[in-house]
Write a structure and sequence with these properties.
Length: about 375
């Protein structure tokens, strides 16, 4: 494979970096005193991206995107993640919109897609449940048809950004007697619908990203069903196929390594050979993961399908690599890295180490990833 970018790709990459340098709101990269302040900045960034049709970059132009190729999308995500630009992790763009385009009605496309592409509506994903995480098909949240409505009862958990999302992308069981991979349907649901309760889950890093969501006789129009009833599992599977290069994790890890190397250069003469060797290993790992991401995007561009085995390998390797890099960083800062006082550079690494634990769980645990790679990717027996 030729990893060199084409002239067109290089020009687009430069356009993105120039936008990051000049097109973002003042103070976008500063710390924010409250969630409301952070959300205001994110919405501002989203509107600026939407004005360039970059928020929904890979979508067809008729739906507010630019019809970008997988490689263009990857180059965009790489720069945004490396520079830490907020407001670019958008579930509505990543999988809700593509599924609506494929399976939604004309009315649903008109109702949902434009408001996602222009940054008006934020979406959260309502999949995982207390007993249905890695085994997602074991979900028990029920959606029962009642005239022109569905009535929803149940619980979802680990719902990222559910506390400020406008809409939720819900998977619920509509036929409890069907095999567990059947009898599931997908719905669009307004998060301020009566009967929905959002409770915060503060993670071990001390931040509020996740939530548990309770549904008590929540009534939604039957028109909010997306696709065929009882075939929602296929919608979920298709949605998870979008944006699978893991370039975001690659860029975050590369930035962490670059910043840590810059710090170590300020303490020249006090860096041990062991730390130097470990940083070299991390730098090699980052480049390896980056090459994997480029390969995945290039294959998706050629075939229209993201290679499943390589995508899961990248997810697994990237998540565990982020943990290793963060652990090295905390060790480099010594006691300061453990204390993580406000205003200290070590604070970012302390947070990164704690937050990286979730990286090996969310989106499929490392154990599940290894099993899938072994059985589906390498053809190994289950026992």
């Amino acid at each position: 494979m030729d990893f060199r970018l084409t002239a067109e790709q290089t020009a687009f990459q430069s356009e993105v970096t120039d936008f990051i340098a000049r097109g973002l709101p003042t103070g976008w990269d500063a710390g924010h005193a409250s969630l409301e302040d952070r959300l205001a900045v994110e919405r501002d960034v989203m509107k600026r991206l939407a004005a360039k049709r970059w928020l929904a970059l890979p979508w067809p132009e008729q739906y507010g995107g630019l019809g970008a190729s997988p490689m263009q999308q990857m180059l965009f995500n790489e720069q945004m993640a490396y520079h830490g630009v907020p407001g670019t992790v958008n579930m509505g763009v990543a999988w809700v919109g593509p599924v609506v385009m494929l399976y939604g009605t004309d009315a649903q496309k008109e109702q949902y897609l434009s408001r996602i592409a222009d940054g008006t509506d934020l979406w959260c994903t309502l999949y995982s449940e207390p007993v249905a995480g890695s085994d997602l098909a074991a979900m028990q949240t029920r959606a029962v048809r009642d005239g022109d409505d569905y009535v929803i009862n149940g619980q979802k958990v680990w719902t990222t950004f559910g506390h400020y999302a406008d809409w939720g992308w819900l998977a619920a069981r509509t036929d409890p007697n069907a095999p567990k991979h059947k009898g599931i349907s997908t719905f669009a649901i307004k998060m301020d619908t009566p009967g929905i309760t959002v409770r915060p889950l503060t993670n071990m890093a001390g931040t509020h990203e996740f939530n548990e969501i309770f549904f008590e006789d929540v009534r939604i129009p039957a028109a909010n069903l997306v696709g065929e009833e009882n075939r929602g599992w296929y919608n979920v599977a298709v949605g998870l196929d979008f944006e699978r290069s893991s370039i975001g994790a690659t860029s975050n890890a590369r930035r962490m390594v670059d910043d840590l190397v810059a710090h170590l250069r300020t303490v020249n003469g006090r860096t041990s050979d062991a730390v130097r060797h470990r940083m070299a290993e991390h730098a090699i790992g980052v480049q390896l993961l980056r090459n994997m991401a480029y390969y995945i995007a290039s294959q998706q561009e050629k075939t229209g399908i993201a290679p499943t085995r390589e995508s899961q390998m990248a997810k697994l390797f990237g998540a565990e690599m982020q943990q290793r890099i963060a652990a090295t960083a905390v060790q480099v800062f010594g006691m300061e890295g453990q204390a993580a006082q406000a205003g200290s550079q070590a604070l970012d690494y302390h947070y990164a180490l704690l937050r990286s634990v979730a990286n090996t769980i969310e989106g499929g645990t490392s154990e599940i990833q290894r099993s899938v790679i072994a059985t589906r990717g390498l053809g190994l027996p289950r026992e």
